[in-house]
Every structure is written in C-alpha cells, then in structure tokens.
Design a protein that fits this description.
By secondary structure, the chain is α/β, with parallel strands linked by helices. It contains five helices and eight strands; from the N terminus they run βαββαβαβββαβα. α3 links the parallel β4 and β5.
Length: 204
C-alpha cells in the first residue's frame, strides 16, 4: 500500500503578517516539515496544495500576492508536484485524484491549514474516494470562529474537527506517532505481512 503526503495550504497568508493569521501556524509547520523530511528520505511522494483565489474582490490568496506563496520552510523540490486549488476540497476541479491514482497511492497522510476548512473538506473527500487517511493533528492549524455571538477558541475548533474526523474519515495522530506507524508498516511490507494500519478507519 503506497502512502503519499498531502501538505495543504501551508502558505504565508496564514502566518504573522498575512491576511488570515492562524493560531500556532509556525508550530504546525515545524511538524509538517518533519513529515516532509521523512517522506523525502524514504522516497515517498509528497504533494503540495496551494490555494489561489479566483475572486477578483478577494482580500487574501490573490494570484501573485506575497500571501499566496508557500511558506518558506515548506516548499517543493524540483519534480515534486504542486496542485493549485480554488475550493476547500483539494480534489474539487483539480488533477489531484488523477495524480494520486497514476502514482498508485492508496494511503494519505494529511497536514496543513486550516483544520476546520480545507483539512476537513479534503480528508472527507479523500475517504469517500477510497483512500485510507491519516491526519497529523499537530501539523495542522486553525483559528477562532464565531457563531451566534459567541467566539469559539481555536483550540476548541481544532479538537472538535479532529474528533469528528477520527475513526470515521481518518485516523488522527501526532507527527511522531505517524512516523512510527509508517516505519512499522514499511517493516511489515518488507516481511510480507499485512500493511493495514492499526485502528484503521472506515468511511460510513
């Protein structure tokens, strides 16, 4: 079972000085960088997702703006694919599904920004398309939300959306746990054993 890493929207807009700063984006990017290093070292595919707004009135993610750029520590090497998207779901109106199918990928490790929006939408879509999904909890970031006059702190938004994904659409784990899991799966594949992850989820 081939595993790919999706790095979703780790862009300057979400960091200090951007139009939509999140809670803890630097910390999340550090963990995402660890995952990227693991995938590169083990010659596993990594796909960079970059959000670009098509709305001429948009105040963020405008084509050619500084904020639309990928964050400095999370940038592709030559040959690593970048998928440009215009919607929260990274599969919608992009070539992502074709790219993964062509590379015979069946498991995805997902990280990036924002947890409550593009991480959530992409993970659900990936599961519906038959991928086994693992979300890196500490390599994702989000922000405060408001509803009915009440502010929902980013930490609560993070926990609620990860809890909703866990067990049904994905297995949610820390970066360290995911790297350990992938190492064990690689050993199992080498020994000819089953490569199913512990706690495998099932889309319902």
């Amino acid at each position: 079972m081939k595993t790919a890493l999706l790095l979703i929207d780790i862009q300057r807009e979400y960091f200090r000085g951007g139009a939509m700063p999140l809670e803890g984006p630097v910390e999340a990017s550090v963990q995402a960088r660890k995952l990227l290093a693991y995938f590169r070292y083990n010659h596993l595919p990594a796909v960079f997702i970059q959000h670009v707004s098509l709305d001429p009135e948009a105040t963020s993610f405008r084509p050619g703006s500084p904020g639309v750029s990928l964050y400095s520590s999370i940038r592709p090497l030559p040959g690593e694919p970048v998928v440009h998207k215009h919607h929260p779901n990274s599969f919608r109106e992009t070539n992502l599904l074709e790219l993964l199918r062509t590379d015979e990928v069946s498991r995805l490790v997902i990280c990036g920004m924002m947890t409550h929006m593009c991480i959530d939408a992409t993970t659900r879509a990936a599961c519906d398309d038959g991928f086994e999904c693992i979300v890196a909890a500490d390599a994702c970031a989000t922000r405060d939300l408001a509803f009915a006059g009440e502010t929902v702190p980013a930490a609560m938004v993070q926990r609620a959306f990860l809890a909703a994904l866990n067990g049904t659409y994905a297995q949610v784990a820390t970066t360290g746990e995911i790297i350990t899991m992938l190492q064990q799966l690689a050993l199992g594949d080498a020994d000819g054993h089953s490569s199913d992850a512990e706690g495998e989820h099932e889309c319902r």
